Amino acid sequence: MKEKKILMVCLGNICRSPLAEGILAKKCEHLPVIVDSAGTSAYHIGHAPDTRSQHIASINHITIGDQRARELTSTDLETFDLIYVMDESNYTNTLKLAKNEEDKKKVHFILNASNPGQNQNVPDPYYGGDHGFKNIFDLLNDACEAIKTELEREFNV
Ligand code: 4NP
After folding, report:
1. Which of 14, 33, 144, 146 is 20–30 Å from 113 (CA)?
2. Is the CB of 12 within 6 Å of ligand 1?
3. Superfamily of domain 4-154
4. What are the residue ranges of helices labelled H in 12-120?
């Protein structure tokens, strides 16, 4: 089976989606999977992940400091096989870039992987304290575990 390209999407691409990228990439090291992330805004293009995301990643043995923020493009919707958004606003803005129904079907709320059908948001932690980052790490870790299990099933691993 062809390798799977997976994209994590949030607003700034400095807090939630870099963490989601790092968590899933680490869980899928044994699978033919490419994981990347992007933001629906141009606010932080070229910036490293927020230090609070880097910190919660590092205490969980995940390195994300070499990632750099970029803006989501309509080409991403063609290139990637699966696109996971963090919240409702990301969902709406990502779908606006889709050129056809096939690309729209690639876009999913990431927390539906762990809590199917609920369309729950990963809360935006940018203006909160460190506690918010522990919470989003736990939410994303559960979702990425479920995504990994599904990928292992698809790849027969
Ligand atoms: P993210 O968090 O979407 O998880 O990267 C945010 C980062 C920056 C801003 C908002 C959310 N901002 O308004 O600059």
Report:
1. 14
2. yes
3. Response regulator (3.40.50.2300)
4. 16-27, 51-58, 74-79, 88-95, 101-104
pLDDT tier for residue 129 given thresholds of 50, 70 and 90: confident
- Sheet (strand 33-39) strand order: 33-39, 4-10, 82-85, 107-109
The C-alpha atoms of residue 145 and residue 27 are separated, in whole angstroms, by 7
- The C-alpha atoms of residue 115 and residue 102 are separated, in whole angstroms, by 24
If you measure from the C-alpha of residue 1 to the centroid of ligand 1, how many angstroms do you get, rounded to a whole number? 35
C-alpha–C-alpha distance, residues 11 and 143, integer Å: 19
Q: Is the C-beta atom of 69 inside 6 A of ligand 1? A: no
pLDDT of residue 113: 98
Q: Please report which confidence band the pLDDT of residue 131 belongs to, taking 50, 70 and 90 as the band edges.
A: confident
Catalytic annotation on 10? yes
Answer whether 155 contacts ligand 1 (Cβ < 6 A): no
pLDDT tens by residue, 37-75: 999 999 999 999 999 999 999 999 999 999 999 999 999
Question: What pTM was computed for the model?
Answer: 0.98
